[in-house]
Write a structure and sequence with these properties.
alpha/beta, Rossmann fold, 2 domains, three-stranded antiparallel sheet, 9 helices, 11 strands, elongated
């Protein structure tokens, strides 16, 4: 047997203390009994009343903690697609040809996707020079929304490591039991670092039957990124280092994996990707198991209540005390 809320026993302890005050009435004036038998009889009945009430409050205290007995497991089945978002967080994603910038526009579209696909499992990987799993596959919508807000530029170094980021998503997806798996790669640059090339990572995805949808983000070839600090109260900007989107590589990745490639010239371009992924057939999988319990609190509550009622009956009927 286990208890759902063991700390609630404190409430029962307060009830026991109150019951002691009711029975012993420490502030009541002393009463003189005439006759030995009468005094002994009342003392005996008061002791019985106290013990019955004490036992009753103990049972009620246990019932408040919600005692229960595990009787088995119940597996919840859900139908899902597994989808990893692989998001470029290099400095170029701060370019302001999207409002307020490329990265924030991409994050907003990811949130819209999550709201459209509440039953899918979503994972998030972000990358720059290094790749990092920000969120393993999850169906917790509140958690996903909070994690999307944590996608930021800054701590993964300089450069654009598409190959290793894509390979990490493939490795994560390969562990999934879902039949339909997809990766949505959002980037605005050219892969220039990493131990695996984007093409090699794409081949790994194809071998694991994982489709990759690539989205090249860039509204303007003349887009610039803000520099830190201001000059005479105005923002300073610089041309994006490394050049524009490597559309050829993104097309190759999508082609090898059976996905599609898109160029996002504005913040609405992700709709095409959402429509494609919406067509995927969902797979039924086991979600987290749920323990089944037999609830026992009613038994303790009934016994405790009956004992308290019996104690009150003796106190009123035989001890002639008022409530």
């Amino acid at each position: 047997m286990e208890f759902a809320h063991p700390y609630f026993f404190i409430i029962g302890i307060l009830g026991i203390i109150a019951w002691c005050f009711v029975i012993f009435r420490p502030f009541k004036k002393a009463v003189i009994y005439y006759g030995e038998n009468t005094g002994n009889r009342k003392s005996f009945l008061r002791s019985i009343t106290f013990l019955l009430g004490l036992a009753g409050w103990i049972f009620i205290s246990i019932s408040i903690t919600l005692p229960r007995k595990p009787i088995g497991l119940s597996n919840n089945k859900i139908k899902v697609n597994d989808i990893f978002f692989v998001v470029d967080v290099s400095r170029s994603m701060l370019a302001e040809d999207f409002r307020p910038n490329r990265l924030e526009a991409a994050k907003q579209k990811i949130l819209e996707f999550v709201n459209l696909k509440p039953a899918d499992r979503i994972g998030i990987i972000m990358f720059s020079e290094r790749a990092f799993t920000l969120l393993p596959l999850s169906t917790d919508l509140d958690l996903i929304r909070r994690i999307v807000d944590e996608i930021k530029v800054g701590f993964l170094g300089m450069g654009t490591n598409i190959g290793d980021a894509l390979a990490l998503a493939v490795a994560r997806g390969a562990q999934s039991l879902a039949d339909n798996k997809a990766i949505v790669l959002l980037t605005d640059g050219v892969s220039n670092v990493g131990s695996m090339t984007p093409k090699q990572a794409a081949q790994e995805a194809a071998d694991k039957d994982i489709r990759v949808y690539t989205i090249g983000i860039g509204g303007s070839k003349d887009a610039k990124i803000p520099l830190g600090g201001r000059t005479f109260g105005r923002k300073r900007y610089q041309t994006i280092p490394g050049g524009s989107i490597d559309t050829k590589t993104l097309q190759t990745i999508a082609s090898l994996t059976g996905g599609k490639d898109f160029i996002a010239q504005d913040s609405e371009a992700l709709k095409d990707v959402l429509q494609e992924i919406n067509k995927l057939e969902k797979t039924e999988i086991d979600a987290s198991s749920r323990i089944l319990y037999k609830e026992l609190y009613w038994e303790f509550l009934i016994i405790g209540t009956l004992l308290l009622l019996l104690a009150e009956l003796i106190r009123i009927r035989f001890l002639k005390e008022e409530l």
